[in-house]
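Give me structure tokens for this 114-residue protein.
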Amino acid sequence: MAPAALLLAALLGWGIYQYAYDYFAHAASRQKPSKPVDVNDVLKTTVTALTLIGAVLAGLYAYRKQLLSEGDAHRADASQLADRYTTAAEQLGHDQAAVRLAGVYALARLRVVP
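Here you go.
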């Protein structure tokens, strides 16, 4: 997967470089007198574009990771609530009255707060 991503990034960089070079060559040819293309400007533009694309992709990755983390937290909360409910329900069926009363109190504390 990593070699494919590196190849894709290289192809994207090459495409941006070619586009920027053509853009600067066209702009330079319209000037009187015409000037040669400054390769440093082309390289700066290419690096800037690739940096912007990388920043956007990193932001999307961080956003997706945050969503997955929040989903895991919600599932953990739901699992803990189910475990507490099961324990309280088992206490309600116990032979001793004190344990049954503890089960009632445990169920009362199980309010789900959104």
